[in-house]
Amino acid sequence: MALQPPSGLTELNPQQVAKNYRITKHLADVYRLWGYSEVSPPRVDRLDTLMAGGAIPSTDIIKLVSDDPIGLRPEMTASIARAACTRLSEIPRPLRLWASGTIFESRQAAEGGHLIEEKLVSGVELLGSKGITAELELLSMLFEALKTVKLNKYHKPRLLIGHTGLMDLLLSKVEPSIKDNVRKYLIEYDRLSIEDIDESDEIKAELIQVMECRGETSKVLNTLKSIYGDQEVIDDLMRLFTQMIPLARGQDIDLQLDPTFQPHFELYTGLVFQLVCRGAASPVVIARGGRYDNLVYKSGEKKDQAAGVGFSFSIDEIRELMSEELESEPVEDIYLIAYGKTSNLEKALDFQRKLHNEGKIALVELEECNTEDEARFRLKARRCNRLEWLK
Amino acid sequence: MITVAIAKGALLKDSVARFKAAGLDFSAVLDPDNRQLMIPSVCGRGRALLVRNADVPVYVTYGQAQLGVVGLDVLKEKQLPVAQLVDLGFGGCSMAVAVKEDSGYLRASDLPPHCRVASKFTHCARGFFDSIDLPVELVHLTGSVELGPITGIAEAIVDLVATGRTLRENGLVAIEEIFQSSARLIGHPLSLRLDRGELQSIVDLMRASEIDIAYPS
């Protein structure tokens, strides 16, 4: 068998790389407009940083053989939070940063063994703001950035929102010894296991009611209020939704509050969300994020100043989802400079320099052509669309 | 369009009946002449994927099917992230440890450490023997597991037992039940979270039809 990349890793072709570049560039333009500065966290970092204070299990990190415990980053937030609390600690807060790059996911393959998946992400982090205003800025920017992705009605984008405080509220009535299991069942949407827990029928019915609660966000919040009474987390969410609903409606994004939704990594301590689109066969998560104050605290920030929110877009998912739309984007002119017997390579290189100075993409056909028709014939093979024939 | 994964074989007839009770009629799959693997429902709201037992949770995990019906034995063996929604009650059987009748073993813990155990369900078997702290060597077989103790390839087997007839006819006896299995309605967690009531109404109707069967009026 020919040499192949490791299981799970994909080698992108030039068209895919070009699409990735276009998507990340458009997103970066939005981040810059909002005053965010680019940082470049290392792909390889220390395990104690990558594990985000215990939020990310060691089994989810691909370790490298080294004298130091180091591995490939499974996400970028932990490294950015560390940088914000050390090298960038003197910069006044709120600190607005963005980064794009690859992350490495490790998962069990169906036939046994491990799969390594390398994924391109692009996202922002807003550090040092504890209030709900940070979430408002973050989600507003998420919606603005989403405009550059050019989703349409077919994709039915929906922002699934949860809150770790809501999950704590749900578990507040549950016997402490079984809380971890119940939390796991709620996250896995495992109704049968909830029915089996050693709790009163009333508590089980409440948990199932909340797990299956859907519809308008105000309806979900009212259901929660009727069960758990006045709670700060419910009031905060009401305020957030009051601001977000008109913004989301303007872009045909559905907001859905889901009290039992929690992401895979236990990085977050507050609002959590993911943006899901309708894919060709199944739902596709194109962005995720949330608040991670505890992570910032564990990275060395003082307790009263430890605050951070962020999101990241999954570029590969967006590229596959929007493949057709990206194909139809206007392509730039690419010139092929060809020459015949009466000209030569030196003249072709001179002409190429002239076009480059005008900002045009131009490449030289290194083989001499016998006729202009022959040069025209080579246009397609060289993936060019304009011919400059030097007589 | 709602896509459901249903397993060929023993669970098929009951699965079709329960989906029919919930408004999705896939009776066409029961036609002996049917060779189609993707069948639309009579109402046109859904379609069924006719797949092998062990593939049901795979289609649901990847979200290609939003719902599926499969035995608990398969779910415990495959360990995939699917939501268990309703115990449908049919397809009852138990996962058990069985040995030759004349072996003298009365419980699984009587088996000698590091003995060989044959099974199609090696994940379930490993979990069980770990739970009783008995180290065993598992031999993976894909069928006719009862031959294990007869041929001597293994001291014991872990397999599904429905009536016990196959065990008896091959001179084997079940000595310990690991768990009771029955058919489960499973779902794709993210699709359930995004659901606006369409999937939930099917789940509710399938649960209600279970009660109807248990307490007929």
Q: Name the CATH architecture of the largest domain in chain A.
A: 2-Layer Sandwich
Assembly type of the chains comes to: heterodimer
**SS field, number of helical segments of chain B:** 8
State the separation between the terminal residues of chain B, measured CA to CA. Answer: 33 Å
Compute the number of strand runs of chain A.
Answer: 14
Distance between the termini of chain A: 47 Å
CATH class designation of the largest domain in chain A: Alpha Beta
- Biggest interface and its residues per chain? A-B, 20 and 23 residues
**Helix coverage percent of residues of chain A?**
40-55%
**Could you say which structural class the secondary elements and strand pairing of chain B correspond to?**
alpha/beta
Tell me, what's the shape of chain A? elongated
Low-confidence stretches of chain B: none
Q: How much is the radius of gyration of chain B in Å? A: 19 Å
Mean pLDDT reading of chain B: 92
Question: Mean pLDDT across all residues of chain A, rounded?
Answer: 91
The number of distinct helices of chain A, counting runs of at least 4 residues, comes to 15
Q: What is the count of β-strands of chain B?
A: 11
Q: What is the count of structural domains of chain A?
A: 2
